[in-house]
Write a structure and sequence with these properties.
The protein has 651 residues and is of the alpha/beta class. It is 63% helix and 9% strand. The strands form 2 sheets. The protein has a 6-stranded mixed β-sheet, with helices on both faces. A 4-stranded antiparallel β-sheet has the order 2-1-4-5, with helices on one face. A hairpin with a 2-residue loop joins strand 1 and strand 2. Helix 5 runs antiparallel to helix 7.
Length: 651
């Protein structure tokens, strides 16, 4: 048997993990932390253990009644005793079952509450994490930890700890009972127990490693599901006809998970076969030696039968006890992952002495701010500027220059590596996060809507708003009439990420949500660049009341926004390289002038052309006809000159 076990372990090492000699990180602190979750529910746990103790003690009675039936009732042919002992055995069994139901209910109640506490705590920790965490962490991994891993540790709370206590009590009571019957048979029966201990430790190590790998693969599988079966991912897969590739990717990932789960399930099978074999050999030896003692008149038949029943009651808990060791070892891999998230420390922390501010004036000041997402790779470099209360400041610059990052520092979605961001002269780090963010509204170009009703999406801006306030906000955002044209009005479901609405409709709902919040500072990633002219006009009309009498930082994509700005900040490579009004910056002839020529001048020319074409629609000699591809038809000279004159005068 020793050679067989050694060969099995060599196979296990080769097939299941690169290194199974790594001892699981089971520490006293971890065990105390796990047990600490029972503290709020200690009264219920006391009742559970009372039930466990009672059922363990009562479990001794049926075998003892069996001995009495054989030795007293049957041997003496006493029908009254036979009836009494039989009814007593049935009654005790029923009472044990009844106690088991109560124990199961209480145990389930405690475990579910603990899992609820852990899952709520993890969600709370994740909510406090900065955007950097979500940028660097796969959504599938987050979902896997908060669902699969937390659910996985439930078995420890629901079964493992209580079962361990129950098994210890059963073993203790049973050993005392069998020694009271006959010490010789007891020693013979107990001699086989130590043979279970050594292989159990090795099985535990193997399961530890495989469990960790399995849950990493489950996280990958969750990520594939989340990305390809969400609305955006599903559309992309269909457009590029990558269904077969993604299905194959999913199948391969699923196969890996199944293979690991099979390996994990098979770890220790030889060991448990070994246990079952000995649990069968044990009674045979007892019958042989006990029968010898009966023949010699030193023991009764009823004692042997009762002893065998008690021995079977002993081997079950012993097997289960060592199986619990294996299961706990596996579960510790999950606890390690759960605690890793519960111990996350958010980078954006609220100061202990943070103050809650009233209504802001709206002054924003950056003082020599530096910021990087990764060490050694600065995104913002020595950024300094001031936005006066009520001013509209436009941020322009090449893609990736750092414009969005600047706006994210104002509500403390990130904290700068160095330098200070101030609002009304107060360092934002000294303001409570809630009171700071309550006064800041953000409308992004990539609008996010929850998969619920239009009403709930708008009221997300301010849940205590009245119906009239919500409607007024929607009217200001130019979206009320559209909403009322829908069959269910404000109770219309928008679908995942607002898939049932157009881009312009989603934007106007987002603007209504921001107007309802009534913030003092608005951050706007202008969202009209990819919309049709009608939607663009509606959104511009919606933005007007949003920006009125508020301090605003606007990432500008349109010339109209730039021209409306009180000040323009030109961002390049994480620095503010130019600052001023539109005409001042044009006169400097720097980066803004180049951006204007590349981005804004074509917009002017197109709009002038559309305007002139509309004005001269009834003038055949100057009308600009649609030019079909391949037809060389020059523009009338007067129109070209007028376009150039208008463009230059705009500059």
């Amino acid at each position: 048997m020793h050679m067989g076990m050694g060969g099995w372990h060599r196979s296990l090492r080769h097939g299941f993990a690169d290194d199974l000699d790594v001892k699981p990180t089971v520490t006293k602190e971890m065990l105390l932390r796990i047990l600490g979750y029972f503290k709020p529910h200690w009264k219920l746990m006391v009742l559970v253990f009372i039930c466990v103790g009672a059922s363990s003690l009562l479990g001794l009675i049926p075998p003892l009644l069996t001995r009495a039936i054989i030795d007293d009732a049957l041997m003496n042919k006493n029908f009254r005793l036979l009836t009494l002992y039989t009814l007593g055995s049935i009654g005790v069994s029923f009472l044990i079952s009844l106690i088991g139901v109560a124990e199961s209910y209480l145990n389930t109640l405690v475990s579910k509450r603990i899992i609820l506490d852990i899952r709520n705590a993890m969600y709370g920790v994740l909510q406090r994490m900065p955007l950097k965490f979500f940028s660097n962490t796969r959504t599938g991994d987050i979902i896997s930890r908060i669902n699969n891993d937390v659910s996985g540790v439930e078995s420890v709370f629901q079964r493992t700890i209580v079962t361990t206590v129950q098994n210890v009590l059963v073993i203790g009571f049973t050993v005392a009972a069998i020694f009271a019957m006959d010490w010789r048979l007891s020693i013979l029966g107990l001699c086989m127990i130590p043979t279970f201990i050594v292989p159990t430790r090795r099985v535990g190590k193997a399961r530890w490693d495989i469990a960790k790998i399995t849950h990493e693969k489950l996280a990958e599988l969750n990520q594939i599901i989340q990305e390809t079966l969400g609305v955006a991912g599903a559309v992309l897969v269909k457009i590029f006809t990558r269904e077969d590739d993604q299905r194959e990717k999913f199948i391969n990932a699923s196969k890996e998970v199944v293979q690991l789960q099979i390996k994990e399930a098979l770890v220790g099978r030889w060991f448990f076969m070994f246990v079952r074999t000995f649990s069968a050999i044990g009674p045979a030896l007892i019958y042989f030696y006990g029968g010898y003692l009966v023949i010699r008149g030193e023991l009764t038949v009823g004692t042997i039968v009762a002893f065998i029943n008690l021995l079977n009651r002993l081997f079950g808990p012993v097997t289960s006890l060592f199986n619990i060791h294996v299961e706990v070892t596996r579960s510790l891999a999950l606890f390690e992952r759960v605690f890793e998230y519960l111990d996350l420390q958010p980078e954006v922390l609220e100061a202990p002495d943070a103050v809650s501010i009233g209504e802001l004036k709206g002054e924003i000041e950056f003082e020599r701010v530096n910021f990087s997402y990764k060490p050694g790779q600065p995104v913002l470099k020595d950024v300094s500027f001031t936005v006066e209360p009520g001013q509209m400041v436009a941020l322009v610059g090449p893609s990736g220059a750092g414009k969005t990052t600047i706006t994210y520092l104002v509500p403390r979605l990130y904290d700068p590596d160095s330098g200070v961001v101030k609002i009304d002269g107060i360092d934002v780090k000294k303001i409570s996060l809630k009171s700071l963010r309550q006064q800041i509204g953000i409308v992004t170009q990539d609008t996010f809507l929850f998969n619920t009703t239009i009403r709930e999406n708008i009221l997300f801006g301010r849940k205590d708003a009245t119906e009239e306030e919500m409607i007024e906000a929607c009217k200001a955002a130019q979206i009320h009439d559209f909403i009322m044209s829908l069959e269910n009005g404000y109770d219309t479901l928008v679908g995942e990420r607002g898939i049932k609405l157009s881009g312009g409709e989603k934007q106007r709902i987002a603007i209504a949500r921001a107007i309802l919040r009534d913030p003092r500072i608005i951050i706007l990633d202008e969202a009209t660049s990819s919309l049709d002219s009608h939607s663009e006009a509606l959104i511009k009309a919606a933005i007007a009341p949003l920006l009125a009498n508020r301090t605003s930082l606007v990432i500008a994509h349109r010339l109209s926004t730039v021209l409306a700005a009180d000040k323009i900040l030109v961002v390049e490579d994480g620095r503010i390289v130019e600052s001023g009004t539109h005409h001042e910056l044009l006169a400097k002839g720097g980066l803004y002038r180049r951006l204007y020529d590349e981005q804004f001048r074509p917009e002017i020319q197109n709009r002038r052309l559309q305007s002139i074409n509309s004005e001269n629609l009834d003038m055949p000699e100057t009308r600009v006809r649609h030019i079909e591809p391949g037809i060389n038809e020059p523009f009338p000279a007067r129109l070209i000159q007028q376009i150039h004159w208008n463009a230059n005068s705009e500059g």
